[in-house]
Amino acid sequence: MKKYVFILAIGMLISSGLQAMEILPTVNVELSDQDKVEILPEDLPQPVKDAIADSDETKDWTISKVYQMTDDEGSVIYKVMFGEGEESITKKYNAEGKEIKED
After folding, report:
1. How many domains are contained in the chain?
2. What is the arithmetic mean of pLDDT over 97-101?
3. How many other CB atoms are found less than 10 A from the CB of residue 7?
4. Residue 5 maps to a domain
5. In this structure, how many other beta carbons lie within 10 angstroms of the beta carbon of residue 88?
6. What is the C-alpha to C-alpha distance for residues 78 and 81, in angstroms, rounded to an integer?
7. Does 95 map to a domain?
8. Sheet containing 63-70: which strands, arranged edge to edge?
């Protein structure tokens, strides 16, 4: 009898927990896109332009899009997309033109 009451109690707790989960809305927040602003390639800081022009990897690519973003520490980051479609690369730079490597 004790087992039956225990199983019933567990079942009620589980079902009430599932009901509570259905009531609460799910919120997905992507903070990285919150401060993302598209800018023109001409508006990149000169150190970033110089880094792109001096790099063997990027100097021959056409810039397709540029986004200015703010990281968690409040620093400005520039996300630069080169090329189009499958033949494209993306790089991130700080305001001093140093490339930011992804982990």
Report:
1. 1
2. 94
3. 10
4. no
5. 13
6. 10
7. yes
8. 37-39, 63-70, 76-84, 87-94, 99-100
Q: What is the pLDDT of residues 4-55, one digit of tens each?
A: 666 766 666 666 654 444 444 433 333 345 579 999 999 999 999 999 999 9
Closest CA to 41 of 14, 90, 78, 71: 78
- Count of positions (residues) in the chain: 103
Domain hosting 55: range is: 29-100
Alpha carbon distance 100, 91 (integer Å): 8
Between 94 and 9, residue with greater pLDDT: 94
Residue 78 confidence (pLDDT): 97
The CATH code of the domain that includes 83 is 3.10.450.360
